[in-house]
Design a protein that fits this description.
Elements (H helix, E strand, L loop, with lengths): L5 E5 L10 H9 L2 E4 L5 H4 L7 E4 L11 H13 L4 E5 L9 H10 L4 E4 L4 H8 L14 E4 L1 E2 L2 E2 L4 H4 L6 E4 L5 H10 L7 E6 L7 E6 L3 H8 L5 E5 L5 H13 L1
Parallel strand pairs: 1-4, 1-5, 2-3, 2-4, 6-9
Antiparallel strand pairs: 7-8, 9-12, 10-11, 10-12
Helix pairs in contact: 3-4
């Protein structure tokens, strides 16, 4: 890291062993770390002893630090000559408002670097023993957000409703009923498999296997309160499902 610059890094899905070596070095070298809410405590504990931790977290439809305040703080710290680490959950380039913060740095004449991280979809699909793409099933996969700046996010529902389509929905718990309604309205099979993975890669990971028809009801019954990723069109592979059942019983 370089004094007076900002390093944007992804902390991955939460398991510290999935952190990249480059991100780990940044954690240990930074003077100030502005971290998101989803960055795990296990990862923050790896910060160097000189690092000051600042919570810059956001929660969908909840309490959050404004984006303008985060942008201003990044610029302020860099101009003080600090080694600034902006630490985001998952990968900083996926639903993490990276462009807005890069623009703030550019407009202030502040240099930056970007360190990618493992995104939630990669960790979650590994948890259910599946693949995001499969020959003969889907030639593309979509990464969607459950909500946008003005409410629930709209998408190409007709395309998503086609048989064999696979999509990873980030921040999709509150929008589950909305997504279900739009897909069924556009002809999706109610038996389409849906899997929700809470706290992917973490010790308290939980997996909910359901269908599009049962999605809102089963999600409400599960009572998930941690970060969760929803897969449309994917069910856990049998061996992975059995392992998750065993982990639930042992817990």
């Amino acid at each position: 890291m370089v004094a007076g610059q900002v390093c944007f890094a992804g902390s991955g899905p939460g398991d510290a062993e999935l952190l990249t070596l480059k991100a780990l070095r940044a954690l240990q070298a930074a003077d100030v770390i502005l971290h998101d809410r989803l960055v795990s405590a296990e990862i923050l504990e790896l910060a160097g002893p000189q690092a000051v931790l600042e919570d810059a977290g956001k929660e969908g439809f909840g309490v959050q630090v404004s984006q303008a305040d985060i942008n201003a703080r990044l610029v302020e710290l860099a101009k003080q000559g600090k080694k600034v680490l902006r630490l985001k959950g998952g990968d900083p380039a996926i639903f993490a408002r990276l462009d807005e913060e890069l623009t703030a740095c550019e407009e202030a004449g502040i240099a930056y670097t970007i360190i990618p991280g493992i995104t939630a979809a990669s960790a979650a699909v590994a948890a259910i023993g599946q693949s995001l793409t499969q020959r003969g099933r889907n030639t593309s996969v979509r990464f969607l957000t459950g909500h946008a700046m003005t409410g629930f996010a709209d998408h190409d529902w007709a395309a998503l409703a086609r048989p064999g389509e696979v999509a990873a929905v980030y921040m999709g718990k509150k929008s589950a009923r909305f997504v279900q309604g739009r897909l069924i309205m556009h002809g999706a099979d109610r038996a389409t498999p849906v899997t929700i993975i809470e706290n992917a890669s973490r010790p308290d990971q939980r997996v909910l296997e359901t269908t599009l028809d049962r999605l809102p009801a089963d999600l409400d019954a599960a009572g998930f309160d941690g970060p969760a990723l929803t897969f449309l069109g994917l069910a856990p592979r049998q061996a992975a499902a059995a392992l998750n059942d065993l982990k639930t019983e042992l817990a």
